[in-house]
Amino acid sequence: MRYRPIPECGELRMDSFDVVVIGAGFAGLVAARELALRGHAVVVLEARDRIGGRTWTDERLGRRLEMGGTWVHWLQPHVWSEITRYGQRIEPSPSSQAVHWISGGSAHRGSPEEFDALISRGMDQLARDSRTWFPLPYEPLHRTDLDQVDHLSVADYFAGLDLEPAEREVTEGVWAEHFNGPAAVSGYTQAMRWCAAASGDWQLLHQATSGYRLTDGTAALAGAIAADGGAELRLGSVVASVSQDTGGATVTTADGTGVRARQVICTLPLNVLGTIDFQPALPAAKLAASAERTASQGLKTWIRVRGEVPPFTAYAPDTHDLTFVRPEYTVEGDTLLVAFGTRAADLAPDDVGGVARALRAWRDDLEVLDVSGHDWMTDDFSRETWPMQRPKQLTRYLAALQEPHGAVRFAGSDIATGWAGFIDGAIESGLRASRAVQDALRGPRG
Ligand SMILES: Cc1cc2nc3c(=O)[nH]c(=O)nc-3n(C[C@H](O)[C@H](O)[C@H](O)COP(=O)(O)OP(=O)(O)OC[C@H]3O[C@@H](n4cnc5c(N)ncnc54)[C@H](O)[C@@H]3O)c2cc1C
């Protein structure tokens, strides 16, 4: 045990730590490990009964499946470093032999090369633009004139290019899938940030974001980080308030338990940041960003279909309930497809009939046996899937969201600098927050 009961705090006795970390997703776990390894007394307060946050490897449909974050890549430096550190392995997702897409109201089928040719004019232009506007991907606010483009949505952007209707519709659909939200609310600058992180190469981006998964699951990586360093982990601890005074902060959970700390790291998803009562109150920009919400509002679901299905990929515009489908595994002679849609409010991830209906937009030859997924939008501890910015949110909020608030630092994939929205971004932000806390604990004279 690293914590020590301390003296008084008014009439109450409270556990006291150097640092309280709120949330045991990748951002919180990495921040806690870094600080604990440097000898600080750290406790992680996690609302759920498990670690991993928006990554969750769970037994469904006959095998272990990822309900949330899945794909990782060596192009993502922070997660790759963790993979190396803990001896994790990756494996490729199946390569598609055919692509199904919908344009002009009808379904089409072609080779991956034909599909890439259809989207290449729009994607090439966006990739070129990303190199112009984000010459240093890890300094997303490097250019001071980003307000010239930050008001545009992905839909606005493609509408402004000289594309054939089918090219525009299909390319926009690909980005709606990337955002897990409708193209009309998806920020063009966020799309460019993704491309810039992949060195302005959209095919590399696609490989990096859906090509390789962790062989033993995200749970194995999260577990390895949690077991390192010796930070104390308290599951089932829903933080209700953070109250600061001159000596630090008191973090209180919903059952009334208080914990004292000199520094706090808050890793809450942006959409639930407003659920904690901060005293003094959070600055207006942080609260406004949380109230505005991220662009992501979709679903991820797993579909078990009868028999072995050769690998394919399917895309649809965001007017469809599912925008992306692909086989990932076979189990007992059946195939497990992974699918995404942009509006969880219209299609729940465990709605067998609704998912089967949506799948028929591309293929009526597949017999759906069962579906399973987690609804991150109605989950009180996320209320978003992977964080994606809306128009204007980059220039309005990112810098303010990364700012500390007294003794409270912020971390999380929502406010990452590089691969924001990814496991990588969560880790990057956890490292950044832990460094700031170490500096603060050392004091002004180091
Ligand atoms: C469906 C889906 C698919 C995705 N696919 C990919 C992918 O393929 N590749 C990829 O890299 N990324 C993917 N992501 C994104 C990635 O999973 C996340 O960006 C990343 O895991 C977020 O980590 P985090 O630590 O910032 O936040 P979280 O993981 O959300 O951690 C925050 C923690 O805070 C806890 N919490 C919330 N409220 C409280 C409270 N009041 N008190 C205490 N604790 C609280 C939460 O329970 C949670 O554990 C996906 C996400 C989803 C949802």
Outline the structure in words.
The protein is α/β, with parallel strands linked by helices and 446 residues long. It folds into three domains: 4-54 and 217-293 and 382-442, FAD/NAD(P)-binding domain (3-Layer(bba) Sandwich), CATH 3.50.50; 57-95 and 295-372; 108-201, Polyamine Oxidase, Chain A, domain 2 (Alpha-Beta Complex). The protein is built from twelve helices and 20 strands. The strands form four sheets. Strands 1, 2, 3, 10, 11, 12, 13, 14 and 20 form a nine-stranded mixed β-sheet that branches. Strands 8-7-16-17-18-15-19 form a seven-stranded mixed β-sheet. Helix 3 crosses helix 5. It is globular and about 65 Å long. The two termini are 27 Å apart. The chain binds flavin-adenine dinucleotide. Flavin-adenine dinucleotide is lined by residues 22-28, 45-48, 53-55, 68-72, 237-239, 267-269, 272, 275-276, 300, 376, 381-382, 385-386, 412-413, 421-424, 426.
Strand content: 15-25%
Helix content: 25-40%
pLDDT averaged residue by residue: 95
Corresponding CATH architecture of the largest domain:
3-Layer(bba) Sandwich
Determine the number of helices (DSSP H or I, runs of at least 4 residues).
12
Q: Distance N terminus to C terminus? A: 27 Å
Number of domains: 3
Beta strand count: 20
What's the CATH C level of the largest domain? Alpha Beta
| Gyration radius from CA atoms, angstroms | 22 Å
CATH superfamily heading of the largest domain: FAD/NAD(P)-binding domain
Largest beta-sheet details: 9 strands, mixed
Bound molecules: flavin-adenine dinucleotide
Enumerate the spans where pLDDT stays under 50 for 5 or more consecutive residues: 1-10
Structural class, please? Answer: alpha/beta
